[in-house]
Design goal:
Elements (H helix, E strand, L loop, with lengths): L3 E7 L4 E4 L5 E14 L5 E13 L1 H9 L5 E14 L5 E14 L2 E2 L5 E2 L1 H6 L23
Parallel strand pairs: 4-6
Antiparallel strand pairs: 1-3, 1-5, 2-3, 3-4, 5-6, 7-8
Length: about 140
C-alpha cells in the first residue's frame, strides 16, 4: 500500500499553474518536525521537507487560502520521479501526490494556536476579509 499522512507547516506560499488542458496544479513544500530526547536527556529536533503536488479544485483552494507557515494535514501517495541531468546522470526525487488536505488551527498574534471556536469567543472574526458568513473560509468543511 502506498499511503502517507503528514502534518506540518508550509514553507512558502503554494504555487498554482495550469496544464495545457487547463487543469489546475499547485506545488508546495511541507516541513514536518520530529522531536525527541537523546540518551543525555537533551532535546533533539529533525525537520524533513516534503514536496507536495496538488491537482484540480484542491490546488485552487490551497493556493487561495493557504499561507506560508500555515499548518496543514495531508493524505497522499509517494511518487518517485526519475530524469537524466545535463551531464547524463540519472537523478531521482520524491514528492507527495496529495489526495486530500485540511487546514490546522490558526495562529494568533502571540504565536499560540486557537481553534475557530476560541477565535469566535474572543470576538474575532473568522473571516479576515470581512465578507459575509456565507463565504467559504478555510475553517469550513472543504468542498471535496
Amino acid at each position: 500500500m502506498n499511503s502517507t499522512f503528514l502534518g506540518g507547516n508550509l514553507t512558502d506560499e503554494p504555487e498554482l499553474r495550469y496544464t495545457g488542458e487547463g487543469t489546475p496544479v499547485a506545488n508546495a513544500t511541507l516541513a514536518t518536525n520530529e522531536r525527541w530526547k537523546d540518551k543525555n536527556g537533551d532535546l533533539q529536533e529533525n525537520t524533513v521537507f516534503h514536496d507536495l503536488v496538488i491537482w484540480g479544485n484542491q490546488a485552487e483552494v490551497l493556493e487561495e487560502y493557504a499561507d506560508k507557515g500555515q499548518y496543514i494535514v495531508v493524505r497522499g501517495t509517494i511518487q518517485t520521479n526519475e530524469w537524466e541531468d545535463n551531464d547524463g546522470n540519472n537523478r531521482y526525487d520524491q514528492e507527495v501526490k496529495v489526495l486530500e488536505f485540511d487546514f490546522g488551527p490558526r495562529q494568533n498574534t502571540s504565536g499560540s494556536s486557537e481553534s475557530p471556536e476560541q477565535t469566535e469567543a474572543a470576538g474575532q472574526s473568522q473571516d479576515p476579509t470581512g465578507e459575509d458568513e456565507d463565504t467559504f473560509t478555510p475553517d469550513d468543511d472543504l468542498p471535496f
